[in-house]
Amino acid sequence: MSAAVQPTPANNSYSWIQMVADTVARFDDAPENRMTTWSQPCVIKGSPSVVYARGLHESCSTLFHYLQNFAFCNDLKLVEDRRVDRMKVTNDRRKSWAPVVALGAGMMLRDTPFDGASLIPSTPHELRSGEPELSAPELIALAAEVRVSGSYQELASNGMLIPKNSTDYSIAHYHAETEMLGQRRPVSYFEGKTFHAVGYRSGDQVVLQVLVGGGPFSAPRLWGPVQRMARDPVELHYLQGLDGRDGFGIFKVTYYLDSDGPALAQYR
User: Fold this and answer.
1) Could you read off the pLDDT of 141-193 as tens digits, one per residue?
2) C-beta of residue 17 within 8 angstroms of C-beta of residue 140
3) What stretches of 92-161 adopt beta strand conformation (E)?
4) Do 128 and 122 touch, CB atoms closer than 8 A?
5) What's the mean pLDDT when you consider all of the chain?
6) Which residues contact residue 236 at a Cβ distance below 8 angstroms, ignoring those fewer than 6 apart?
7) What's the rounded Cα separation, in Å, for the pair 76 and 41?
């Protein structure tokens, strides 16, 4: 049975995601001001690490220096990938595995309006609907909107989403119907101490966009469960500012879930 939906005064306070959205809105989201690359959390010889694209320091020094700052601010080791075809190998491999965070999200989503008989990572792990992807700034703005206008419920999390040594396993869930990709549809925003994500339906799948980290060029921080994301490719979306060293980055991972429960019919 789903957790009870409750009104909460927290909706009316100025939240973390609204602060991020207001900061991102100061940057021009024009295509010429966007930069993207990938990174991948992992553990190398016992050290939490982030692998980045081979040759990035030469092909885009701005993104490389941002990753350097991110690694330094979060006590991560930065490692250059040694394989030229890493993304092809990673993407092909990712289509066949069940990511840990996706499994944990499937368990959590059973207590939300996305409830179904089964909520499991899609196989292959890719989007089937062909819908366009929201830009990172659009995703942040959508999360802030739902945080303000949505109904509220508190969800019990699990060790797949939040580190087992955490003392706070609860995640706030905000749910609202809003405009997205040219149509009105239900959207959820999930907010925990180390978990921030946006969920919505796309065709017969549930799409979960997990916000892993980001911030200004000088001080990017972790926002999400990077310890649970070994092997998951993380996208870095960077908005260039007026100065070459002035910008804002957003790390995110996209997960796709399948479910076929009767409760999903009203959201299709």
Assistant:
1) 999 999 999 999 998 888 888 766 666 678 999 999 999 998 999 999 999 98
2) yes
3) 120-121, 151-156
4) yes
5) 83
6) 36, 37, 38, 39, 63, 66, 67, 249, 250, 251
7) 9
